[in-house]
Amino acid sequence: MVHPIQTANWTSRLLYNWIEPLLGVANERQLEIDDLWPLQIQYQCKCISTIFEAAFKRKRSLVFAIIQVYGIHFAFVGLVQSITVLCTLYGPVVLEIILQAVEKGSQMDFYCALRAIVSLFIVRAIQALLTTHSTFENQLLTMQVTSALQHLLFKKTLALDAAARREKTAGEISNMFSSDIQLIINFSTSSNQIWLIPLQVALILWMLYKIIGWATFVGAAVIIVTLLANHILAKAQRDAYKQLMTQKDTRMKTVNEIFGAIQIIKLNAWEENFLSKLSNHREKELRTMKHIAWLQSWFVALLYAAPVVVTVVSFAVVTLVMKEPLTPSKAFTA
User: Fold this and answer.
1) Is 48 exposed, middle or buried (0-12, 13-18, 19+ CB in 10 A)?
2) Which InterPro entries match (predicted)?
3) Domains of the chain by range and CATH?
4) Taking the CB of residue 235, how many other CB atoms lie within 10 A of it?
5) Dihedrals phi, psi of 31, to nearest 5 degrees
């Protein structure tokens, strides 16, 4: 049985038509393991681990190995995502053209406005396709990086000497598989945002400057203040996550101690004492998780409030300080 993507033509790959037979079966009944296609060779753990382990042995660096093995793939995804950013910013440009045409009244160039609308439709269609493909490629990267790191960690765990086994308990190793690796994967799959977000901000500020002039810099100052506040929250959240990881390791260590000496605990009727000890560890974890949720709520509040504050401050400067009229083309575009 061959994976259908290997025999699909370019239109099927572009529009994901190759997945329709599986979706049709899933629409009729619950999927079973036999309904799924075989995993392609390049995505099998044996192939991934062989390539990644060879790269890791050269410099003994995870960052170096990830860049060497998946760097081109990351760059391709970043290029596609940068094009989607440009497509996103095309909407306000077309809106400005339409509103300026409407403001002219009888002198409106109908065909110019029509061309802008048609071009917007085409750009949005391209953006939808590119967004879908970049998300799909990012998920493939996530799967490959996950397989590579988990295989490397599993192999390292099997080769631990006695001294290392005393330092690292089974609970700590389990947390590495479930939690710690996920943090590395989250960073690696979103690393393109490090340069995409500044690029998007720079383009937006340039477009705003063309519309409302130096009032843009006032809005930029508000953005900088917001970023500083987000930085403080992110730093606090990072510290809270570190604390949570430590508390998880402590709790898992206690759990392993309990299971390792369960007969002694039962014979001496120490269940309540160990339950109390385990509950205290869990309560500390819950308090830290509540603190993280509180920080995230402030982070989301700033995320949604920032655009509104920037808009209000910028428009206030345009009307009250610069004494310029706030036309529909300026207001709706900015």
Assistant:
1) buried
2) ABC1_TM_dom (IPR011527), ABC1_TM_sf (IPR036640), ABC_transporter_C-like (IPR050173), ABCC_6TM_D1 (IPR044746)
3) 41-191 (no CATH), 193-334 (1.20.1560.10)
4) 11
5) -70, 145
